[in-house]
Write a structure and sequence with these properties.
Number of strands: 49
Distance between the termini: 79 Å
Mean pLDDT: 94
Largest sheet: 11 strands, mixed
Strand content: 25-35%
Shape: globular
Helix content: 10-25%
Number of helices: 19
């Protein structure tokens, strides 16, 4: 009998390489696998791991139990360069599955002694403001090549060719890390590039993050003013010997065709120089610390897609204009034909149009321009190597009669493996979710940057702190974020201070403790643990997590309230003025103290998981003290929270900061009323946005949460979609309804942070969430909005794919669920009190649909009038048409004092002055509008005036 299908090929650590995993950075890589399908009742009772080492010895290790994710390496520790081929099989009792497909893992270079190469730098050329240098060395290989590896990194960016063939498919390598602490190197299999005889290795160097312009204060070369290369080519021949070419003083340098390169400003290339810059210059050997070299934990930056032009036209100035239909990140690839040698082609980039041309103001000082002097060949392909741009539109000068088929947008980004999908019957919600995905793709460029287009592009801690749950559903981010967290810990000061951007680009504010931003030190590792079950990330980050909370405790002092000092507050609250995005409604001290409580609780729980009992007790006491201080300072006995803002209530509700049931009930009701009073428009910034819909739903106001989610007027999540957005905007109104651009200095049209709402879409609207770390237990709790017909989501958990779909038809809701092998699901069927626990496999339920409002719902209060979405829309249209109000938000504000009043008081509340222009047609229209509604005590009160 076959109980289970063959397990998947093993995975090592969090690497997602499709084939051989090269350059693993640990001698004992953890192993993961999952079983795609199994018979009912199957449980893994044991597993066997077969390891075949490079010497031909094969060993089989039997591991009892059900573990199948991040299982400890059972064999001997790997040595540098050593490879092992691994496969697994699993057992149910005495019955074993077939063996999985094998996968090979190969160790990187674990220590400085493994490097014969040394860092080299050109001495005469390659300085700041000079053309990009090309460094070259050669190796004679005497015999038949069996295998070859290139180990390489740089100060700056590199692009390598070996015997004229490009090495690898990566871009912007070695990436961006805290260079003084951690410099990533890469390993390439170049066996197909090397031949017997002389082999020439050419490596071009660009400025990148190391020496280019970095940060919005215009600094350059913050890591150093010398580009440098470290490369080691190792070739094994048939006789078992190894030939090594390492960078040393024998290498030479020459100038390349790249005249200038910068991540913000673009690349300037003279193709006439290819093959003509033959003068060779010496290099110098640098004394650099090789102990800071680290192996990659996540995927590199690659080309992930190519988008065709959807429209090409001519501007009034006669330049070609191109629309690619999608705001994305990368560069323009253009094919030109029969241009005279020396002709200049200029390509400028922008996210949106303004007037007849590109909207360049949002770029601030970033030139975002690539230029080329063509060589004069019959056909030439123009694209850069050492820059990237965020754009949808391009202006191309110097090419006449440009054809759409000759121009493309090359999309780049960290090559993260997709793990999550989401879709619904609502076209705008689907587009919103697509925008979230595109913004993540465009801003995960080796580090999680805030935006990809202007003179910034920094790893802001606050942005990723709120977006990490969404990111971890959509893509496999564990290795990517673990690497970034290692940099955070390196950059953290001894007193626990966390910089506002990681890697740090120092400004006057860099080291001032700031809530929500510094809390990335605790929130992000906790998210990784929750989503992957990797307790190792908590172990590695624990000292960093603890240091941050200890620093905040010192700042807060004995009353446990974090007050004063610099804070971002609820950044980009829509009520904040464009020039002061931190000046929102919510008291910054409240925001800070709430985060203090949350981080302290995370550290307490982490300490308990890591068996650090003394710390667990200490931080539990601290978390409880901060929670009590929050309630004492910011909350009334009845449950009203100071600032009386949506963010304040969302924080208090979602993070358990309200001690009594009365306070929680009052806070939930007040939050719902605040959303009603805003006309169901968003009123939160970075801090409140990820929490508000969850807070409403958990307080029993899921209908209000759905109204907020589905709002299309500004500010809302769907407003940018109605304006044609294809990514998430930085501001709720980055573009105004009249098509003008927000006047604030910060106006990005590709900023993933406010897309954190997607986590609510996945967990609540579709209903798929982890109940225990790593999805070992899954919570299925869909909350279907009244005006959606269906929704679905899927996620590749560490145990395999989990999928959920619910659909309405014939007065019922059907729910279909797939639970991965090795997990269980706790299912809460919509609109019932049923809770069902199921094991792996496919499951189906059908339940009555109680989620739509009956046609004749009794409208007892004005609150009910607002809650009837159809009635409210008609009422708003009527008020605008008759001039009573400019929009329904104004109506909602006018009704705010009367939400608990009888529904029959609606007319008097909206038109208290009988002399008001338009009152008669409004009264008549309101009466007709409400004729079909059932209103409590309707016979005793005139609905248009509220009079008896």
């Amino acid at each position: 009998m076959t109980w289970a299908e063959t397990p998947t090929a093993p995975r090592f650590e969090h690497r997602t390489d499709a084939g051989t995993v090269l350059g693993i950075g640990t001698a004992t890589p953890r192993i993961s696998w999952y079983v795609p399908n199994a018979a009912p009742g199957y449980e893994q009772t044991a597993a066997q791991v077969e390891i075949a080492d490079h010497g031909g010895l094969t060993s089989i290790y039997t591991l009892p139990g059900a573990d199948q994710t991040l299982v400890q390496w059972p064999g001997h520790s790997l040595q540098s360069r050593e490879s092992a081929t691994v496969r697994v099989r699993v057992a149910h009792g005495e019955i074993w599955s077939d063996w999985s497909e094998p996968r090979t893992v190969e160790a990187g270079l674990f220590g400085p002694s493994d490097w014969q190469a040394r860092f080299i730098s050109p001495t005469t050329i390659g300085g700041e403001g000079m053309p990009a240098p090309n460094l070259a060395g050669s190796l004679d290989v005497p015999g038949q090549v069996v295998s070859a590896r290139l180990y390489i990194t740089a100060h700056g960016l590199y692009s390598a060719t070996l015997n004229g063939k490009r090495v690898g498919d990566e871009f912007l390598s070695p990436g961006w890390t805290s260079y003084s602490h951690r410099l990533r190197y890469q390993v390439y299999d170049v066996s197909d590039h090397v031949t017997s005889g002389t082999n020439t290795l050419d490596i071009k160097l660009g400025n990148g993050w190391y020496r280019g312009r970095l940060g919005y204060e215009g600094e350059r070369a913050i890591y150093g003013d010398q580009l440098a290369l470290l490369a080691q080519l190792e070739v094994t021949t048939a006789d078992g010997t190894t030939q090594i070419l390492g960078t040393d003083g024998s290498w030479t340098a020459r100038e390349s065709e790249i005249l200038a390169d910068d991540l913000y400003d673009g690349q300037h290339t003279d193709l006439r120089r290819i093959g003509t810059t033959s003068t060779r210059y010496p290099v110098e050997v640098l004394d650099e610390d090789l102990a800071r070299l680290v192996a990659p934990e996540g995927p590199p930056v690659r080309q992930t897609e190519v988008l065709p032009a959807v429209r090409v036209w001519s501007s009034p100035r006669g330049h070609a204009m191109v629309d690619f239909g999608q705001n994305a990140v990368g560069w323009v690839r253009v094919k030109v034909r029969n241009l005279e040698a020396g002709t200049e082609v200029v390509i400028r980039h922008a996210e949106v149009l303004e007037g007849d041309g590109l909207a360049l103001r949002p770029l601030r000082t970033a030139a975002a321009t690539d230029t080329y002097r063509v060589a004069g060949a019959p056909e030439e392909l123009l694209e850069p190597e050492f820059t990237f741009h965020g754009f949808r539109y391009a202006e191309i000068q110097g090419v006449q009669d440009l054809q759409a088929e000759d121009v493309q947008l090359v999309v780049i980004g960290s090559d993260l493996a997709p793990t999550g999908t989401f879709s619904t019957s609502h076209e705008l919600v689907d587009r919103l979710h697509q925008n979230v995905v595109w913004s993540m793709r465009g801003n995960f460029i080796d580090v999680p940057i805030d935006c990809p287009q202007r003179d910034e592009r920094l790893g802001w801690t606050g942005d990723i702190q709120i977006f990490a749950p969404t990111a971890s559903f959509l893509f496999d981010t564990a290795g990517f974020l673990s690497s970034w967290l290692a940099d955070l810990a390196c950059e953290q000061r001894p007193d626990g201070a966390v910089p506002h951007v990681v890697p740090v680009v120092e400004t006057a504010l860099s080291w001032l403790p700031a809530a929500a931003w510094g809390d990335a030190a605790t929130f992000v590792p906790w998210t990784i643990y929750q989503r992957t079950g990797d307790i190792g990330v908590l172990e590695r980050q624990y000292n960093s997590m603890k240091a941050w909370v200890n620093q905040v405790a010192d700042v807060a002092g004995p009353d446990f309230v974090w007050a004063g000092g610099f804070q971002y507050g609820d950044w980009l609250d829509p009520t904040a003025p464009p020039e002061a995005p931190g000046r929102g409604q919510t008291d910054p001290d409240l925001v800070a103290t709430a985060h203090f409580a949350r981080s302290a609780k995370i550290v307490a729980t982490t300490a308990r998981l890591l068996d650090r009992d003394d710390d667990a007790e200490k931080f539990t006491l601290l978390a409880n003290s901060v929670r009590a201080a929050f309630a004492s300072r910011f909350v009334t006995a009845a449950g009203l929270v100071i600032s009386d803002s949506a963010t304040a209530y969302a924080l208090a509700l979602e993070w358990g900061l309200l001690p009594t049931e009365l306070q929680r009930k009052t806070a939930g009701e007040r939050l719902a009323d605040l959303v009603r009073s805003s006309g169901f428009r968003i009123s939160t910034g970075f801090v409140g946005t990820p929490l508000i819909c969850d807070a409403l739903a958990s307080a029993g106001h899921h209908d209000v949460a759905h109204r907020l989610l589905l709002q299309t007027e500004c500010p809302s999540w769907l407003y940018p979609v109605t304006m044609g957005a294809t990514t998430i905007w930085e501001r709720w109104d980055s573009m105004r309804p009249d098509g003008t651009i927000n006047p604030g200095e910060m106006t990005s049209f590709n900023h993933y942070a406010l897309g954190a709402i997607a986590d609510f879409l996945h967990r609540s609207l579709a209903g798929l969430a982890p109940l225990s770390p790593g999805y070992r237990d899954i919570e299925v709790r869909p909350l279907p909005p009244a005006n959606l017909d269906w929704a679905s989501a899927s996620h590749l958990t560490p145990y395999g794919p989990a999928t959920i779909r619910w659909e309405r038809h014939d007065g019922r809701i059907d729910v279909d669920l797939r639970v991965p092998v090795g997990t269980t699901a706790q299912v809460y069927l919509p609109f019932t009190s049923d809770v069902i626990t199921v094991g792996h496999g496919d499951h189906h339920w059908s339940t009555p649909d109680l989620g739509t409002r009956p046609e004749q719902q009794r409208l007892q209060t004005i609150r009910d009038v607002l809650d009837d979405s159809t009635l409210w829309k008609l009422l708003g249209d009527l008020a605008i048409e008759t001039g009573i109000a400019t929009d329904d938000a104004q109506l909602a504000q006018q009704l705010t004092p009367y939400l608990a009043a009888p529904a029959g008081f609606t007319g008097q509340a909206l038109t208290p002055d009988v002399r008001q222009n338009g009152i008669e047609p409004f009264r008549q229209g309101l009466k007709e509008l409400l004729d079909g509604s059932t209103v409590a005590s309707a016979g005793s009160r005139d609905l248009t005036t509220g009079r008896h």
